[in-house]
Amino acid sequence: MVHPMSETLTRLRYRYWPDHWLGEILSKRWTETAIPVILLALVVIASGQLVPGFYTPIVLADTLRQAGEVGFIVFGLALVMIVGGIDLSVGSIFALTNFCALVMMHILKWPVPVAVLGTLVCGGLLGAVNGILIGYLRLRAFLTTLITLIIFRSVYEILSLRYSTEIAGYVPESELWDFLGNGTWLGLPAVAWAFLVAAIGGHVLLTRLRLGWHIVAIGGSRRSAYNSGIAVNRTVALCYVASGMLTGAGGCFFASRLATAGADIGVGMEVLVLTAAVLGGISLGGGRGSVTKAVVGTLIVLLIINGLTSLSAPGGITRMVLAGILITAAIIDVRWLKNRHRILSKVYVSPTYHRLGVAPDCSPEGGGVWAVNNKLRDVELIGLGRIEGPEDVILDRDNHLYAGSRHGDIMRFLAPDYQQMEVFAHIGGTPLGMAFDRDFNLNVCVGGMGLYRVTPEREVQRVTDETNRSWASINDDSRLRLADDLDIADDGRIFFSEATVRYEMHEWPVDGLEARGNGRIVCYDPRDGSTRTVLRGLRFPNGICIATDRQSILFAETWGCCVKRYWFDGPRAGQVEMVLDNLPGYPDNINLASDGNYWMALVGMRAPAYDLAMRMPGFRKRMAQRVALDEWLFPNINTGCVLKFNERGEVLETLWDLGGENHPMITSMREHQGYLYLGGISNNRIGRYKLTGADPGFSQYEQRWRTA
Q: Quick one: CATH architecture of 364-463+477-707?
């Protein structure tokens, strides 16, 4: 027997200790940038401590000039890497564009704007060579750019040997040219301002423009991007062209600052910029990266190089340090990319303490209303083998029967015999809870998509797919992950449950394992088009039904094994009270009965072992880390049950299918004209059960809107 004090401490520890935040933080993409930023801060501190005068204004200005010049090249390489390529020729392109700028200014004596434009065009043409070979001819990026590195370097050495004397023999008398190389504005070098503008433009490109989305998509999966209609070859080629132009910009600023065409210009540049890109977090595998990461990586590498230079380290040591950093960063990038999902799954899942009360006795010997029976054993079956996953069922005023399908369709069975089946509407996601509004639009909760409606003319319309974000949430909980059931108030407001804000629809067992209270109730108001969350911290809320007072809703908490009532209007607005507690199973959809009471489905039954595990969060966490998902301890979902209850919390009747031969996992039921229609998300049929003494004229929404 567990000591009460130990149990209390366990409950408090797993409720208030924020270990679940660690997984949420690591799941954020910005953490990939945060780690290089932390490393940058450490390098800044170490440089200041080890090198006296490292951060004097003169040294800082020189560092920023170098950072701007190298930053252009890193940004260009980052674009190529994000799209899934690599460019080893950037050092040679940098040398050629530097030479091009010097020839235009020192020999041809062109105006500065024309020379700058000519240098950018030169860089773009050199990048286009790689772009055509890799983008259109589909050659290997590594081998191709290795060859162009050699070719471009050879061309540079031939040209520099021929024209270096003429370049050195003339100095352009241009204030604008001098300003590009050594000028400042508001205390910052001109190249830093130019790179800032390019960085902002690059950020907008990658995060806000369609071309940027295409670049990321191609890097993530070239085949999927092609199948989606993206111009893969052209986009890849354009990235190489952009890389060449950005390298040309760096070469232009370098030429205006140093005015040299020495034989060592650009030698080893590819290692430097590749190290900066990978260290900043640009993935070698493609599909991941940002301008911020390129900037951070550039600063880290330059500070390390300048620090080693200030400490009089030999050039060989500097190159070895860069190579070591590159290898380490590449190993981390590859291993993290390969194991990210597995690592996150171990730290993200964070069970909490959850104690359920004693369940009522359901054995035949126990007697009472909960005693198991076989009333659902011989129900009539509709659509057997023709429909998959009818989570909810509903009937219209013409007695046609509707149900969702896991294939993303809403199926309609035509009255009166329900033998003819047709696709009423294609939604795309998995249709879950359904409700008719006054105009007999069919409102549907769609897993992973939000709230949709289907008009009588079969037009599919999105109602809402987001709500207000919680200020205390690390995850972006404004997006609707798992809207699962709904009902509509008299004034048109739609109240719907979202089972979890942490997991997707196929991950519902993980949410059950956590039992943390990740769900909420959301309200959509058609009067102003707003969507807001009205209740948070619920354990897999499911089943929404407008109560008979028309001022409150009844909702089920599946993992809480209870039914609660929430007032949205009237003198008790905002209050919540318990209606049914300590249920023997896990409640799902709730719907109105013809006698003013309520029907509810139990999606599965509690078991002593699972109830005990709910009080052992440490055990559940170890199970999630060490055991495959299909071998976890699960609730019993093999026994179907439907119950009728009233607003006083009294259970009036139970209908069982002991052994689950017809409906092993009942998720919904709907009374209509003397029959009870049964749905189940794991079933391949709809059940119809004849009710004794029920109103043969009852149609839930036809009666509801006629009397509202």
A: 6 Propeller (2.120)
